[in-house]
Model the fold of this input.
Amino acid sequence: MQGRKKQNMIELKNVHFSYESATKDTKLALNRINLKISCGEFVAVVGANGSGKSTLAKHLNGLLIPTSGDVLVLGANTKCEEDSIFIKKNVGMVFQNPDNQLVFTIVEEDVAFALENLGVPQQEMRERVEKTLSQLNILEYKNASNAELSGGQKQLVAIAGVLVINPKFIVLDESTAMLDPQSRDDVMCILKKLNSELGIAVVLITHFMEEAALAERIIVMNEGKVELDDSPRQVFKKLELLESIGLSVPQVTKFCHELNLLGENLPLGIVDENECAIELAKILKGPRR
Amino acid sequence: MIVYENVTHIYNRGLPNQQIALDDVNLRFEDGEFVGIIGRTGSGKSTLVQHMNGLLKPTTGRILMDGKDVSIKGLGINFNVGIVLQNPEDQIFEQTVFKEIAFGPQNMKLDSGEIKRRVAMAMDFVGLPKDILETSPFDLSGGQKRRIAIASVIAMQPRVLVLDEPTSGLDSAGKKNILQRIYEHHKKEKTTVVLVSHNMEEVAQYVERVVVLEKAKVTMEGKVDEIFEKPNELRKIGLDIPRISVAFLKLKELGYDVKNVHTLKQAKTEFFRLKKTLQER
Done:
C-alpha cells in the first residue's frame, strides 16, 4: 500500500479479462472496462447470461485479476498481494449459490466466521452476529443447522456473513435469485438502509429489473462491454435496445411502452407502479381544458 | 392423476431440531394441468414436489399416481415424473454434457439411436448449442447448467414435469424462451406441469391453477385469477401479485372503476375498455 493515494472508490482502468481456455477462441469476458464506483453509491449491474457481469463482480475484490488493466480498491491495486486482506475487508462478496459460501454447519458459527478471523472479542462478536441476524429477520435460525434451511434462508445467512464485517462495499452476485418476493424486498430494504444510513456502497448484480430500478445507477453489460451506464429511468427508456440484448424492463415500464406504441401519450421509462397509475389516470381524464 | 393423501413430512424426526415441512397436505393434480406452487422460502414447496416421484417419502400419508402408491415401488425411480431441482448443481454429476442429458434415457434402456435423438431434442428445447456436447457441465455458466438440468429431464419425456424455480439464474430472454417452450410442450403433449415459482408474473401468464403453501400447509388453492384477486391475503403471507396488478389497484384507489388484471394483455384490454366507457359518457 506504499505510496498509494487515498481514494474513496473502486476504479476499473482499461480492464480486459479472458478465461484461460483450451479451445482456440479465447473470448474476452471483459473488454476494455472503464468504470468508477464511489463509496456510498447504490449501483445495479444487469446483463444477459454470459455478458460478463459476474466476471466484473469478481474483479471488484480481487477474486479475479485483470488479464490487462487495473482495478483499484480505495487506491489499492488488486494485483498487489499484500493488499489482499485490506481489499477483502472493504469489499464483501455474496454469491449466487449459498452452498458455495457457507462453511460451518450452524448458522451462528457461519456468520461469526469472518469476525473470528479478524479477532473480534467474544462479547462483541455475539452482539454483532445477533444484530445482523435480526436485521435480516433470521434470528430464529441462529442455532439451526444450515442443512435444514431452504435455499432462500441459506442465502440470507450468507448475506449476514458479509454484512457482519461492515465492509465499505458489498457486492451481491445474483444473491436474491433464490429468494421469495418478501425476502427479496426485505433484503433490498436492508441494503437500502445500509446504503443510506451507514454509507455502505452496494453493487447489485441482478436479473430482476424491478430490483435494478431501485438503484441510483444501472450499468448494463453486453458481451463483455459496458453498454449503458445511467439512471434507471434513462436506461429503461431504451426498451428495444435492452430486449435486443436479452434483457427486459419492469412490467409497468413495458405496459406504458406498449400503450405508447398504440398511440397513447405516456412518458417513457416509468418504473414505479404509482407513477404508472397516475399517468394512466391523466389519460383517462383526457387532455386538460 | 396424482393424489396427495394426508401427507406429512418431518425432517429430523424425534431430534431436538425436528421440523415439520409438510403438515397434512391433501392435493390432487389432474392429468394435463399446469399448476403453480407458490409460497415463501421454507414454506415446504420443494419438499412437496420431491414427494411426487418418491425422491422423498412421506413420514405419514401417501401419494398415489393413477391409484398406485409411489413410495412402495422398490427402486423408487419413476420415469413418469421428471423433477428439475431448484439448484442444478444438485443434479449434475456426469463428465460431459452428452452423458449428463443421456443418463435418464440410458436408464430407461432406450437404444443408442433413440438416446442420441432424445439428447438432440432436449438440447434444442432448452436452447443449448451443439458444440458443448463433449464439454464438462461443470465448466459452464450457471445459466447453462440450469439449461442442462432441464434438458436432462425433458430427454426422458415424462408425463409429469416438475420444475422447482426453473428460471432463477436465467436472464429475461432465457426465462421467457424456456417457459414458452415448456408451455407449448404442455399444450402439445398434454404433459402435466407443476411449476414452483417466486415470479408472480410468470405464474399469472402460464399457470391455470395455483396452490399456496404457508408454513407447511396448503392455505389457498384455486384458479390463477381467483388467487390474485386476494392481494391482501397474499401480502399477509409474504407473497406478491404481478406489478401490473399493483398499478391497476392504484388506479382503482384513484377512483376509476377498473377490474383487477394480472397480465399485460388483460391490462391493455381493460385500459381501452375503460377509456371507451369514459369517452362515451
About this structure: The radius of gyration of chain B is 21 Å.
